Structure formats: C-alpha cells, structure tokens
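Table 4 source record.
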Amino acid sequence: GIYDWRQQMAIIEGWYREYLGRSIRTTERAAWEARLRNGESLAEVQAYLLGSHEYYDRYRGNTQSYLAQSYENLYKRRPTALELTRYERMMQGGMQRVEVMKQMAQDANR
C-alpha cells in the first residue's frame, strides 16, 4: 500500500475512535499489526470494523441507520435512497455484514 504499517496503524486507531468510540486495545493492535504485515489491506480492516458486532450494536438493530452511517464513513456523504436500498437488499438476501461492507468499500474506491 501507500502507507507503511505504522501509518496504517494510526489510521486504524482513528477508526476505532470514530467508529467504535473507544481506543484500540493492546491485543487488537497486535492482531492488526500482524495482519497488515501479512498483506491485509486497509480497506479489508475498515470493512471488518464496519461489519463488526460492536459497530452494528451501536445502531440497536436499525439496519437503515447502520448502513447509512457506514456509507457516510466511507464516502463522507449521505447515501441516496437508491444507494441505501442496494445495500439493504444485500443484507436481506443473507449477505454477511462484513461482506456488505467489503462491497461498499470496493464501490467507494472505484
């Protein structure tokens, strides 16, 4: 990637604060460092965090709010109704949250 792993860890630590409202734990930091060194991309880490139970639980099961905020985190704007519906259908079709977030991240990076 364009960042070294220390810069990547700083980005991930920022996502923990922004998305989860807390600091990264020592064990989480060590796990992400290992995964980055083994080739995991920042986009995959971001999708994992946005697809996590901890992040989803912040929306108390409100899938629309969860997807809209995830979209805003990736795109820095609110989704249109059509964009939101696309990801809602993926989840309703049984796609796992992390996979929906990976798709959303891929769409954001096009």
